[in-house]
Amino acid sequence: MAAPQGVRAPREERRRRRREKKTQAAVANQVVQTAGGGWRTRIFPYALIAPASVMELLIHIIPMILGVCIAFLGLTQLTIGNWTEAPFVGMENFIEGLDPAGAIGGQFYAALLRTVAYTLISLALAWALGMFGAVLLTSKVRGRGFLRTLFLTPYALPQYVGAIAWAFMFNQSDGAVNRFLVDDLGILDDRPFWLLGDNAFWVLVIVTVWQFWPFAFLMLLAALQNIPTDVYEAAAMDGASTWKQFTTITLPMIRQANLVMLLILGLWIFNQFNIPYVLFGSGSPEEAMLVSPLIYEQSFNYWNFGLGGAMSTLLLVLLLVVSAVYIRLVMPKGKQLND
């Protein structure tokens, strides 16, 4: 039997008051917990990034600082045993490395110019292949999934594995390249030495492009997929050719992604050490000597760590200046990536 209206009203009122008290108690408890655990709340985000920060400090920051300090010391084979007491030589290592009339300075400038040429050629070819692959896979072509996996294979392989495979293929006596060109096609009469002389530079470019063009392809493919198809349809209705659409729609709309990709890829290629080291060993041929292998040669082959540190510092400053100028020119102050 239902309770009278006069009895039901006070009962509902009591229930409402109990609910309000429970809510107030829960809020008060939360406030107390937050106040008591405030320091834990503030420290927790830093605790999450602490392992990565420590590893970054140990692997990159501290070695970089030590390298800069070593550049001002006469650290050689004679003083490496007690490197903390190596004599301070000031700017002598920098002067020796920058003197174009000296043997070391001449090598450094030649390697720097060669590295710039190597970077520009490799970057241009990697960008062209990456753009071609990205445009191809954004069109309605069969087997896009298979082609995407195939294109990304060089980037998925470790650099050392890929470089070792290329070193075997370019071997003079029984490499696949000479076997194909000389034995199968008969294009060449003699088996050239691909890893020596002028050929070594172009082998370095080929292996570098093969290794890095999938990164350009991946970045450009992601940028192209953000372009609305309606834009191309409207341009086609207006009579724009495929090349016109590419130059007036595709390139402008992926400009910012293009600029970031070129900066990252350019720095990777310019600092490349793994590929020449695997292809040529600890001593690259003069025609393929880049800055990073030259620094390694001076430091670990000739035990002149002070000079190697000075070259590393000069390279660091050069890349910082070039990167800052590049960012300032392509992304003026206050301009965002999506502007």
Automatic annotation (TrEMBL):
Q: Which CDD domains match?
A: TM_PBP2
Q: Where is this region: Disordered?
A: 1-23
Q: Where is the ABC transmembrane type-1 domain?
A: 112-326
Subcellular location as annotated: Cell membrane
For this UniProt entry, which segments traverse the membrane? 57-80, 116-137, 149-169, 200-224, 259-280, 300-327
Q: Does the keyword Protease apply?
A: no
Q: How does it sit in the membrane?
A: Multi-pass membrane protein
Q: Which domain of life is it from?
A: Bacteria
Keywords, in A-Z order: Cell membrane, Membrane, Transmembrane, Transmembrane helix, Transport
**Gene3D superfamilies, A to Z:** MetI-like
Give the family, as the similarity comment puts it: Belongs to the binding-protein-dependent transport system permease family.
Specify the protein name: Sugar ABC transporter permease
